[in-house]
Amino acid sequence: MVDTLTGAAPRCVLLGRAGFFATALAARLRPLLGDRLRVVGSAELDLTSAGSADRLGEIVDGDTVLIVPARAPRGPDPFRTFTDDVAIATAVARCVVARRPRRCVYFSSSAVYGDATCHAAITEQTAVAPSALYGVSKLAAEGVIRHAAERAAVPLVTLRPCMVYGPGDTTRPYGPGAFLHSALHSGKVQVFGDGSEVRDYLFVRDLAEITAALAFNGSPGVYNLATGQSHSFRQLWAHLRALVGRPFEVVSVPRDRARTDQTFDIARLRAALPDLRFTPLEKGLADTVASVPGAGDRS
Question: Is the pLDDT score of 294 beyond 70?
Fold first, then answer.
């Protein structure tokens, strides 16, 4: 792989070893970069600890493409998670200023746009208005890293993925991962309302493919990572019924917030990667189910 900005083979530091995104990114980047990829997990470097920016600076230099999918583990205290997420971003920002890497790729989230009742055709220019603490932390992190990158004249790629699903996801947010886990372990899937709300879902291997392209050859800036095709929760559970190999019940529970429909306009992503092809939802779900021992077994 060659960085078209410089014509040189890149060196890459990936922050995060065991996380959902980091695992998929390492699997995609390792065949491309070999020993020029260094994966740094929290056991080696805790980015929330004092002095972590200096220790990161011992790993990063001016030839490094720094990719940052790392985030704080979710715990019972959302304010602690918020503080840790911002601390991670601050350590990265300090390192960017001090070491001036070749490029920085930061994983934010579409949560920065908030949960408006109808978010149709979200673009990178859509107003940010996070409605949850996670989105607030990601927006704050974007700001501190952008400030550092501008100060150090480091090209910055900020990625805002929609809901990502696929093999290896243990976080199980409301959507494919949660539905599959519930169907397999309780024989019951709970949905808010009638399940007609729509969301965009991105397969994790597609996220890794997009990141590999934008990290080394794409133009700096903000990119929404989505397919541009939204699906209802009803469609999700219909696909899962055909895949899991066992019956499960769908139970409607009262909404605890207003109905939310979201779709994305991915014109900027398409312009940057005109040959991009997405994994169809049915195929991505099938691969996800196949990765779970015993799932899909109809014997």
Answer: no
CA–CA separation, 77 vs 288, rounded Å?
Answer: 30
pLDDT of residue 29: 96
The burial class, CB within 10 Å (0-12 / 13-18 / 19+), for 118 is exposed
For residue range 28-70, what is the model confidence (pLDDT) as tens digits?
999 999 999 999 999 999 999 999 999 999 999 999 999 999 8
Whether 98 and 237 map to the same domain: the answer is no
Same-domain check for residues 106 and 189: no
β-strands 118-122, 261-264 pairing: parallel
pTM strictly above 0.90: yes
Answer yes or no: do 61 and 145 share one domain.
yes
Structural domain count of the chain: 2
255 Cα distance to chain centroid: 26
In a domain, 81, yes or no: yes
Please spell the DSSP secondary structure of 216-279, one letter per residue.
HHSPSEEEEE--S-EEEHHHHHHHHHHHSSS--EEEEE--SS---EEEE--HHHHHH-TT--PP
Instruction: Tell whether 271 is covered by a domain.
Output: no
Structure tokens at 109: 């989230």
State residue 170's pLDDT score.
82
